[in-house]
Specification:
Order of helices and strands: HHH
Distance between the termini: 67 Å
Helix content: over 70%
Strand content: under 5%
Largest sheet: none
Number of helices: 3
Structural class: mainly alpha
């Protein structure tokens, strides 16, 4: 029976820690922008042409190395 009281006390302590972490996140502004993350995936990220070419070259070199 004593184990039950220890487990209940420990679970309440863990719940209070998570509640404190949640309240800290809300007060520090973690949940302010709720619109942008939902539409971010709808817009295509534009990369400069140089980085696209270098990515293709890296892929070709990696494929060539794996065949050796």
């Amino acid at each position: 029976m004593d184990v039950m009281f220890v487990l209940i006390g420990f679970s309440l302590l863990v719940a209070l820690v998570f509640l404190g972490a949640f309240l800290w996140a809300v007060r520090s502004g973690q949940y302010e922008d709720q619109y942008t993350p939902s539409v971010r995936m709808l817009f295509e990220e534009k990369r400069p042409a140089e980085s696209i070419e270098s990515t293709k070259e890296d892929a070709i070199q990696t494929e060539y190395r794996s065949k050796e």
